[in-house]
Specification:
The chain is an alpha/beta fold. It is built from three helices and six strands. Strands 5-4-3-2-1-6 form a six-stranded mixed beta sheet, sandwiched between helices. The longest helix is centred in the middle third of the chain and has 16 residues.
Length: 157
């Protein structure tokens, strides 16, 4: 197998009831395959609240975009919320969202670096949806969000 120097990493942590996944590197078929199971766990919870920080994504292809759309659909079915953070800082993500006409399909969080930005009243985030104060941050079945303050890392080279 030829190593083309492609790398991808993800880091996950919880802020309140919100799971934040920071993506970096190349979100391609390899990354999408790696993330699929974890995203399904997160989006399988009742009222999931997920922020995907894409500011450090250097490349995204149709498989990566498909992963984002799948997460969005699953979260909508569960009456949850998905926000994309750092889209303006990731030229490749912004470009692909514009080319596909999907930019307006996602809620954009403009300042994920501030802790308050992940809450309903966070400055720079989209307006909260009705019923967003859903107390059911616990997942159904096998999936479970990471414990608060316990980051998990995964890397694919």
């Amino acid at each position: 197998m030829v190593d083309q120097g492609r790398t991808f990493t993800s880091r996950e942590h919880v802020v309140g009831a919100t799971t934040v996944v920071e993506l970096s590197g190349e979100v391609d078929i390899l990354a999408a395959t790696t993330l699929l199971t974890r995203f399904d766990e997160i989006t399988g919870a009742r009222c999931p609240d997920l922020v995907l920080d894409v500011r450090d994504v250097t490349f995204i292809d149709c498989c990566g975009m498909s992963l984002l759309c799948r997460a969005r659909r699953r979260i909508e079915v569960k009456a949850g919320r998905l926000r994309l953070a750092g889209v303006a800082e990731s030229r490749s993500v912004l470009r692909l969202l514009r080319l596909t006409g999907l930019l307006s399909a996602f809620d954009l969080c403009l300042d994920p670096s501030a802790d308050a930005a992940f809450g309903p009243a966070g400055e720079g985030c989209a307006e909260p949806r009705p019923g967003e104060d859903c107390p059911c941050a616990r997942p159904e079945g096998g999936g479970r969000p990471a414990a608060p303050g316990a980051p998990t890392d995964s890397a694919v080279a």
